[in-house]
């Protein structure tokens, strides 16, 4: 069966069918462009006009560049306060995330020294407080578990210089403090 026989057979089944090879070729071309256009619209027309956002969460915003923030923790701006002048920046910054308290505490113990902070002491009761210092600065990190989330509160500011101008006496002029038996 050749092409003219197929056309003749189609013409008997469908009287509207074109009866020349040129007409068939034109229809095939139109059909090809139409299907290509529809395919293009389906594939690209439904795509967003803007590039898709990455699946990774955005990196945390460090309000203090030398204080690291645990991964996936987000700043709670309603609970945070920052005081800033051209020469000073201090404040209380609260972050919340899904990690457990112990891993957040270990994060700060491991990461703060990498940013120049020394751990002075820590307190654990219903929450954990970590006290750090570096020359001229002090930082307290308070970690506790809230409603389904862990809260890390960072209090940072300049360290007060202790001296006679603050009304404190040098060690040799300090009064003797007795023990419990003197009470």
Protein described:
The protein has 183 residues and is of the alpha+beta class. The protein is 26% helix and 26% strand. The chain is built from three helices and seven strands. It has helices spanning 3-13, 21-45, 101-111; strands spanning 74-75, 81-84, 89-97, 118-124, 128-134, 137-145, 150-158. Strands 1, 2, 3, 4, 5, 6 and 7 form a seven-stranded antiparallel β-sheet that branches. Strand 6 and strand 7 form a beta hairpin.
Offer a quick outline of the entry.
The chain is of the alpha+beta class and 183 residues long.
Gyration radius (Cα, Å) is 37 Å
Q: Which percent band covers the strand fraction?
A: 25-35%
* pLDDT averaged over residues: 78
Indicate the multimeric state: single chain
| Unreliable residue runs | none
* Number of helical regions: 3
Query: Percent of residues in helical segments?
Result: 25-40%
Helix and strand content put the structural class at: alpha+beta
């Amino acid at each position: 069966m050749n092409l003219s026989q197929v056309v003749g057979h189609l013409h008997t089944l469908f009287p509207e069918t074109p009866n020349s090879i040129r007409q068939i070729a034109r229809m095939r071309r139109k059909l090809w462009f139409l299907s290509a256009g529809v395919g293009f619209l389906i594939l690209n027309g439904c795509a967003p006009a803007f590039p898709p956002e990455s699946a990774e969460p955005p990196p945390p915003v460090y309000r203090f560049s030398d204080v690291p923030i645990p991964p996936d923790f987000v700043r709670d701006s309603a609970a945070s306060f920052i005081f800033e002048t051209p020469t000073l920046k201090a404040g209380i910054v609260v972050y919340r995330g899904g990690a457990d308290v112990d891993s957040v505490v270990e994060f700060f113990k491991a990461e703060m020294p990498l940013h120049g902070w020394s751990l002075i002491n820590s307190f654990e009761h219903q929450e954990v407080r970590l006290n750090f210092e570096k020359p001229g600065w002090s930082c307290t990190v308070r970690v506790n578990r809230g409603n389904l989330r862990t809260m890390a509160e960072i209090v940072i500011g300049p360290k007060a210089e202790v001296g006679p101008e603050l009304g404190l006496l040098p060690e040799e002029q300090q009064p003797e403090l007795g023990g419990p038996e003197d009470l």
